[in-house]
Amino acid sequence: MRYDAETLGLLGPERKAVPVAAWGRTAAAFVAGKPGLADLPTPVVTLDDGAVTDNLAAMAAWARAAGVDLAPHGKTTMAPTLWRAQLDAGAWAVTVATPWQLGVALTERVPRILAAYAVLDLGVLGLLSRPRTSRVLVWADGVDVVEAMAPHVADAAQPIDVLIDLGAPGGRTGARSVEEAVAVARAVVRTPGVRLAGVAGYEGSLAHDASPDSLERVRTYLAQLATLHTALRDLYDGEAIVTAGGSAYFDLVADALAPLHDPPATRVVVRAGAYLAHDDGFYRGISPANRDAGPRFRSALHGWVRVISRPEPGLALADGGKRDLPFDEGLPEVQAVRRGATGATEPLDGAEVTALADQHTFLRLSGDAESLAVGDVVRLGLSHPCTTFDKWSLLPVLDDAHRDQPVVVDVVRTVFG
Q1: Where does 111-270 sit in CATH, by number?
Q2: Which Gene3D superfamilies match (predicted)?
């Protein structure tokens, strides 16, 4: 794949993944020199080119076989180049979750955008009311949301598409019953400037594991979403969109909703986004692959931290912390070591991350891991890609993070506020 090196321009210290030797050089010139992993500063998070390419193809193939479309969640990466790769691989749209993310997607001319929230920002409503080339579909879960939009969209150059957001007690947003959701849909139909375009939901807030009870709770909710769609058939204006599916239960979404997929009458759209980078934590544990029901992914994200202190037996301190590494869905896991930062990548047993401070990783050591020395670089598996990407405005892309001597082949630019 091609990423961002050719268009990024000059590099400097404002991007923490850039080594001193690359300051004042273009990203293209830096990559053309085929720098190795040892040339990068620490801490650093890298993206694995082979894993990204394989994950992209695996998910596209799954969607085709399952009979659904994809609208991957752009918030996972906030990397327009990766969005474009997903679209080029067949994704129908890109999903966003905030006014700022929507603005980035519009600026990048994403052709179809699912704005998976209630758009009430007056500036954004004004933007959507003007002529535009992107089709934008927004969420509404209450009559009050529709009424709040109404004065600001009545004179829209083209109707704003609205999906009725169905939730569940204890979940996130969303009408709490099918009956309430039907009332919201009727409010959309009678409101100038908006158009009823389908139904939407998110099952991921209802379960956090793959236990039988959790899976059944998800299935029950998806059946209710299908019921809502059926109840609204006579109210739709044109093709109806039925969308659900985070990154944990998209297989169940396909099982329940794919029978409805019949463009141009009804289009079923799955919004999973974490698959592109996957992880070595939360999503590895809850992925449909663990239920033999989905494609196999592999983590494309790795943290690399340098040991900077061995203050006592059994303890090492490394130079990455909460500002660099995700920790909201579990601490990083130790995978490998590069002795003296330049040695071949080799497995490291007996080391565990026990805590992260702002700029330090605490490593508890036992057995062979007691040989860990100041200057060694440790490879970490990371949990939760969404809170990994947002810590890095630039990620070096390695050919293969598992090679003895990985090489930087490109860089990825992210857009975070």
Answers
A1: 3.20.20.10
A2: Alanine racemase, D-serine dehydratase-like domain
